[in-house]
Amino acid sequence: MIFSLFRKNPRRTAIAVLYTRIATASRAPALYTALGIPDTLEGRFEALSLHVILVLRALRSLPAPAGDVASDLTDAFFQDLDAAHREMGIGDTTVPKRMKKLAGSFYGHADAYEAPLNASDEAALAAVLGRNACGTEAPATGLARYALAAERGLKEQDLTAILETGPVFPKPEDFA
Q1: 91 burial type by CB count under 10 A (0-12 exposed, 13-18 middle, 19+ buried)
Q2: Distance (Å, whole) CA 70 – CA 145
Q3: Ubiquinol-cytochrome c chaperone domain spans which residues (predicted)?
Q4: Longest dimension (CA), the chain
Q5: Which of 10, 37, 109, 175 would bridge 145 by S-S if both were Cys, CB 3.0 to 4.6 A apart?
Q6: How far is 108 from 110, CA to CA, in rounded Å?
Q7: Please, which contacts does 121-126 make with residues 24 or more away whose CB atoms are closer than 8 Å?
């Protein structure tokens, strides 16, 4: 019984690899230098959230077990945020309050991006991304084009491709 604790869980490993690939894509320097996301703690959260949201949307359109993968990916995202806050030295009593605020922000952004992404409405998405991801009232047109291209590319991948080779994101510098 005790030895089962030391066995590798292939599903957990696949989710960890998927999350790492998404996090790596969200750290592309051109997102910050060319597309206007501030290179701050908040800006990095916004970039990571956008990428996670795009992958979750793609998973939502795929057959089972994509729903389970989406749930596990969401868990990995919030576990990473929790761990990062604890690493920064934020006290144990404060972390749950911050996590609640971050979850509200994440799900609020997912809702705000939903209609423009569904309609492929570049102008509406640029306005929302400008406010949310870039922290400005100016539309983030390049970032909106990037997100729409990422959305199209992710919709072309099946679950096996997403898990084995990772989600494919365009080069941010191509949208500057």
Answers
A1: exposed
A2: 24
A3: 34-169
A4: 58
A5: 175
A6: 5
A7: 122/148
Peptide bond into 63 cis (omega under 30): no
- DSSP H/E element including 92: none
Tokens of 158: 């099946």
d(CA 154, CA 133): 20
Amino acid letter at 95? V
Structural contact between residues 137 and 30, judged by C-beta atoms closer than 8 angstroms: no
What tokens appear for 47 in the block? 């970039």
| Tokens standing for residue 123 | 């102008």
Give the sign of the dihedral formed by CA 118, CA 44, CA 21, CA 24.
Answer: positive
- DSSP per-residue letters across 31-89: HHHTS---SSHHHHHHHHHHHHHHHHHHHHTSPTTHHHHHHHHHHHHHHHHHHHHHHTT
Q: What is the pTM of this model?
A: 0.91
Q: Rounded to whole angstroms, how far apart are CA atoms 93 and 111? A: 29
pLDDT tens-place string over residues 34-44: 999 999 999 99
Which residue has 């939903």 as its token pair? 114
Question: How far is the C-alpha of 111 from the C-alpha of 103, rounded, in Å?
Answer: 12
Report the residue count for the chain.
Answer: 176
